[in-house]
Amino acid sequence: MLHLVKLLSTYSFMGLIRYLRLQIMGKELLVTGACHCCGNCCRKINLEGTHGWLRSPMDFQEVVLLYPEYERFRITGKDQQGYLQFACSWLGDNGLCWNHEKRLSLCKNFPDKTLHFCGGSVPPGCGYRISEVRPFSSYLADEVKGQQKNETNPHS
Ligand code: SF4
Ligand code: SF4
């Protein structure tokens, strides 16, 4: 039960369903693609605080107190799951970050797989994709099993 409460504080409800589906299906997440600098990920951002994804302006204020560099974000509304959405004031009219060298690690790591467990997805038009895939090791294990079966029963 405690484990479930911890999971729910880490993931959104939708994210938890995705997490459990991955566990049951034995799959993992794979990020593919490339950035083509559309800037959409700087216009619709979910932020994570010390107690999970931010839901209220008060949560955000706490984060800014701890990490003043987050002041660059402005609340624009909420997503379908009730999480705050932000836009970044560092995004220029040309769709590019005006101080790319000093962007945050969350910008450098986008799209982080945790986005999937917040119930979110990459923004429309993004060149990246997060997919649920069967791990290579599981294909390999099937292959080895098949070969072992053939060796023990060559005429089957
Ligand atoms: S700091 Fe730059 S890269 Fe990061 S969200 Fe803002 S505009 Fe985008
Ligand atoms: S939304 Fe995707 S393609 Fe557009 S700037 Fe962000 S990472 Fe790059």
What would you note in describing this structure?
This protein is an alpha+beta fold. A hairpin with a 2-residue loop joins strand 2 and strand 3. The chain has one domain. It binds iron/sulfur cluster (2 copies). One iron/sulfur cluster binds next to loops.
Question: How does the overall form come out from the CA principal axes?
Answer: elongated
Beta-strand residue percentage? 15-25%
Give the terminus-to-terminus CA distance.
Answer: 47 Å
The radius of gyration over CA amounts to 20 Å
Number of domains: 1
Class of secondary structure makeup: alpha+beta
Biggest sheet layout: 2 strands, antiparallel
Average pLDDT figure: 89
Estimate the helix proportion, in percent. Answer: 25-40%
Strand arrangement across the biggest beta sheet: 1-6
How many strands? 6
- Which hetero ligands occur in this complex? iron/sulfur cluster
The total count of helices amounts to: 6
Parts with pLDDT < 50 across at least 5 consecutive residues? none
Provide the succession of SSEs.
HHEEEHEEHHEH
